[in-house]
Amino acid sequence: MESNTKGAATFYQYKLIKKINLTPVKLRIYIALPLFFVVLETVFLSWWSILFMIIAAPVVIWIQYVISRSVLVITGHPIAKRWKLSFRLPWLGYMPDQYISYGIFRKVQMHNFWIGLCIAALFIVWSPPAFTVSLIICHLWVLFPRLYTLLRLNREEKNGMLKFTSTDVSYYSQ
């Protein structure tokens, strides 16, 4: 029995469907956003907002890490060697290190978005409003590139694979 190696697609062959480029201009705007919001928050809420924003950043990264990891463990997806903490812009936080299914990535990010907002809203009871606003701004800022990716891929087939690099996001389908 001969194997057909020419022209026959196997399970491991994927076709690039869409590539979302992350230009230096977009990256500069992304980096400037928290500075803009710190100035607004300082003017309208409190001078302590600068300190609150510095404290909120690692708190948000930790909250999103716990939510992401919990969603992956509860749904039974393998995470060993596939997800890692990233400190590269714009992919801060717990990100896939390899190709990842679009469905899994979307599920993790939607849980991150809603549960993270609820946790940040709970802080209004125990902390100053400026800290709660800082948590929400940091939360949305960290998730912004991921949500932008999901929005750009909204009309594509849902059974593809994603690959994240520092310069682009590639969406592949079989």
Describe the fold and architecture.
A hairpin with a 2-residue loop joins strand 2 and strand 3. Helix 2 packs across helix 3. This protein is 56% helix and 18% strand. The strands form two sheets. Strands 1-6-5-4 form a four-stranded antiparallel β-sheet. Strands 2-3 form a two-stranded antiparallel ribbon. With 174 residues, the protein is an alpha+beta fold.
Strand content: 15-25%
Helix content: 55-70%
Structural class: alpha+beta
N-to-C order of helices and strands: EHHEEEHHEE
Rg from Cα: 19 Å
Total of helices:
4
How many individual β-strands?
6
Looking at the structure, what is the overall shape?
globular
Oligomer: single chain
On the 0 to 100 scale, the average pLDDT is 88
Strand order across the largest sheet: 1-6-5-4
The largest pleated sheet is described as:
4 strands, antiparallel
- Distance separating the two termini: 25 Å
Low-pLDDT runs of 5+ residues are 1-11
